Structure formats: structure tokens, C-alpha cells
Amino acid sequence: MAAIEVRDLTRKYRQGEANMVKALDGVTLSVGAGEFVSMVGRSGSGKTTFLHCVGLLLRPTSGQVIIDGIDTTALTDRERADFRGHRIGFVFRDQNLLPSLTALQNVMLPLRYGRIGRGGRKRARELLDLAGLGDHMHQRPGQLTAGQSQRVAIARALIKAPTLVLADEPTGEVDNETSDELLFLMQQLNRTSGVTFIIATHDVDVATCMDRMIRLSDGQVRADERLRAARSRLTSRR
Amino acid sequence: MEIVHNIAQRRLRNTLTISGIVIGILALTLTGAMAEHFRAQFEGGVRYYSSNIQVSDDAGGNAGVISLGKIDPIQKVPGVALALPSIGLMAKPGSAGGVPLGLPDTIVYTDPRERDHTRLKTAIAYGRQLQPNRQGEVVLGYDLASEFRVRVGDSLDLPIRPRNANPDFVNHPFKVVGILKKTNTFPDATASVGLFDAQMLLQESLPASFRDRVDPSSLASRITVYGKPGVDLDKLADRINAKVPGVTATRPTDFVNTFDQGARFTAIAIGTALLAILFGAVLVVNTMLAAVIERSLEIALKVTFGARPWQVGVEYLLEATIIALIGGVIGFALGAGLAALLDLAGRTVNMDVFLITDRLAKIVLGFAVALGVGAGIIPALRAAKLDPDLALRAM
What is the ipTM of this complex? Predict the structure, then answer.
């Protein structure tokens, strides 16, 4: 069964008094469980709108988003918040750590909302260790590099053991070397934990590092390619 | 911890906001302490005067004298349990105009039997009570003892000699044998003397033309009447007026009503302080709205982690409340400290006008919390309604 089934997804935005702009225009696709997928397209192609619709941050104008067999478009706001909190992790472009919290506290932040199981701190430490930040747990974002901050954000996205991680330009603010390190980390996590990753990027070079590349343009899927050789290419860079 | 850090991070803005609240709460504490002081005085007056009937001579009025010969006919009125002489005269003659806020210092004689009947109880803090038939002794109220800095065993001349005393002004040394516990009402400003001493001082306070024609042992300022159990004191006062010629018995409810006028003063004073608090509330709203705008990305992130709108709203409400509470605690502490200093400075001129009570602390701090919650509602709602999609795109 596909982890994500998107059917005829459309999202319109009002622009000005009368104009309606289609950010997504009948997107239909499916992503299997454990896939490592890139969504590539230029600025304004609809990548972020797609991620926000799939991430239940935005209600589509029409169409369906089915995650793990659940039609999320039929959920109430409260159910969407619970669903989002427990099954979906997010990584954003930059500046997405709370400056008042340490790296460890930032990773644990999602545990504050919803049902909190035991062992949250232990899991946060493990994730930070996995991200190579075992020595930086008690540092605040201001003391971390951009790459380290993004690693913390990736660890935070996984703290609730989600089935899906949505990353919006996670390498947009870092140099190539750091970008490769971040992609490698996400790839490792994808392999070891089986979490599905959908990574939006405008950088085709980044997109080709993944198993599958979906091209988006003017809110429509223009191409959907499987890139069997990509993983080894990224791995060999290490 | 996160909230404290957030407050500390925007130090200047939050300091200014907290300062605004501090000023408002300080004003509320001072006016509230003044209101508590007057309330305690009024309650003492109500407690005392609602339990008895004050009878004065028709000719002399409240400021004059009454013959003790009126006690017997009053005592015979049905319903009267006890009719006792009371004497009250200015301890600092000629100083009434200079004491606008405190109770005037008063030399009093109260019959010891009153202690069993009155609702306003006093107790000795230091020394002892007056002993019957002993002259030249005085028991001072707490404030009066503080005002003149006297202790048990010291001597105090009564009445106090005014600065521009007439050549025929006379006073007498009294040995302080006891000091009362503080009551926060009029016994604090009294000097209690025995009957013979009080009658002598009362006679000396009379105009010279009248003074030599009266027998001091037959004088009192008023007669205080206690009713038998279950007797309606207002109706008893009416009966005394009807049956005893030449006297005026004041209904207790009329006396109590005069004390209730003080509530209006309290309301005006507190109303003024509340205006100052509103100023602080506007600052909190402004600060928190700015925080919501500044931290819209943070709010959006929390929403992506599964935070429900109400949870985000509660966090901002809590932050506004903590800001207000910090201002409240500092404002109350400063207000209480200032009240204590002003009371200390004013004690020598009988200007002890502030009373900090547990009740006042609860009201003021409760008000600070309410202010934080009230002022935090709009920013909290705005935070709760923030569109995470738009906020995340703006980053």
C-alpha cells in the first residue's frame, strides 16, 4: 500500500479582489512507504503548497490526500493537528530552531504537544548522536553552524517516530559540502528507520541524490522519474 | 523556562512594560492600603457604635457634657441593660484642623463594665489595665504610644500642650501603665484614664464661665447604653428619647450610616488607581501583540509539531500573565515599602494612614494576574488564529 496517495489535488489562492491563482492544479501521485523522494521545481511551481497540503498545514481546495490509508481531507482541525503531530515530521529551510532552547530541548519540543510517551529525552539524545551532535546537545542555536542547526531540525522531525518527513529546501542555506552531509544523514535515516521522505528543492543536483524525482511546474506534475543510481552517487561522495 | 527566556530576550521592551505595571500596581497598593486603613477604622466604629446607644445632653450636644443624674432615668427605660458614663476629649486641643487623615488623639474614660458588652474588644500589649480608683495613670493606644515614643513606666502630660497655649492652659502628668495591642481603629489613638481624672480634665476643658459652676464628679461627655439581649437598639433609642427628658439618644443605625460614607472615599481612591492600572494593561497588550508578530514563525513551527491553536494561545496568555505578575509583585513590594516609610514619617504627626493586609496582597496580586490574563487574551487569540502556511512561507 502506498504511504501517500494524492488524488487530483488542487489548491487555489486568492490574489487581489477577483483573481484566483492555482498553486496546485490536479496533482495526482502516490509515494510508497519508505521512499526517498525529491520534488523539484522552480520557485512558484507549487512545491511548498504541495508539502503544506500533504503536511496538513493547508486544506486543499479540492482533491484528496490519503496518508497511511486515512483520507486526511475528511479530518477535523483537531484530528489534523493530532495526525500531523504524530505521523508527520517537518524540516524547513532555515531559522527553524527556537533560540531560547538548547539543541536537546529543540529536539524534544514536539513532545510538548499531544500524548507524550516515556523515554523522550533518551530518544532525543539518540537522534542527536545519530546526527553527529552528541557534543552539542546543550548548545543554543546561536552557537551552532547552519549545518548543525539543520541536523538538529532533522533530529527534531523524527522525535515522534513519524511515518513521513516533509523537508522544504532543507539544504537551501548551506554550502555544497554541508548539503551533501545533510542529504546523507536523511538518506541514512530513511534507510535505517524506513521513514518516507519527500524533499522539496529547486536544485536538480540535490534532487538527483534521491531515489525518485518528481518535477513540478505551474502546479502540475510534469515528470516522475526513478533514479536508481542516485543513492550510490551520494553514498560515494561520503 | 522558555517563557522566562523569552521575556529576558526582549529586555528593554519587557522592562518598560513591567515598569508600567509596577507604577499601576504601586498606585493600587498605596490607595488600597489607605482604603484598608479607613475600612479598619470604619469597621471598628461600626462594631462599637452598632452595639450601643450614645446618649447626649440636649443642651450640650456631642461636644458637650451630660449630667450623670440622667443615668438612673435611662436605666429605668424598659430594655436597657446598662447605662454607663463615657468621657471623650481632645488629647491635643487646638490641633484638629492639622490632622486631616488620622483619627484625632483622644483622652477617654470607658467604664470597665463595657468590656463585657462592647463588640470592639481591646487587649493589653504591654503593662496592665487601669485599676479602679487609682489616679494619674493612663493606658495608651498603640499609635498614640508610638507617636509620643513612650513606654510603660514613662510619664506623659495630658492634654498635650499646644504650641500657642493660652496662659491658663493646664495639663497633668500621667504614668503610662499599659499599651494596647494595635486594633487599626480608634482605640489606637486613645489615652484611657480613670473616671476621676477624666472628669477633672473634662471640667478643665470647659469654658471658664461654666467651669467653676459644675461639680466634676457629676459630669460625663455621653452616656453609653447597652440593651438587654434581643432588644432592638433603634427602638430602644426612640423609647429613651420619649421617656427621658433633656437627652438625645442616637439610633445606632444613624451612627453606623455616617461611617459608611467612608466607602465612597475608598471607591474614588481605588477608581483612580485602576486608571493607572489600565495604562499598564495597554502596555501588556502592545508588548504581547508585538511578540506574536515577531514570533509568528515560532508559532507556525509549534503548529507543525501538532500544537492545537488553544495550546499556542495558552502559552502567550501565560507569558502575558507572568509579565503582569512580575510587575505586580514588584509594584506591591514597592507600594508596601513606600506605605511603611510614609507611615513611619507620618507617625509623629498622627498621619498613620496605610494598612497593608493579607487581603490587600491577595487583591492586588490577583488583580495583576487578572490584568495579565485580560491583556493577554487578544494577543493569545491572534497567536491561536495565525495561519502556519503563510507564516512558514514568510521565513
Answer: 0.79
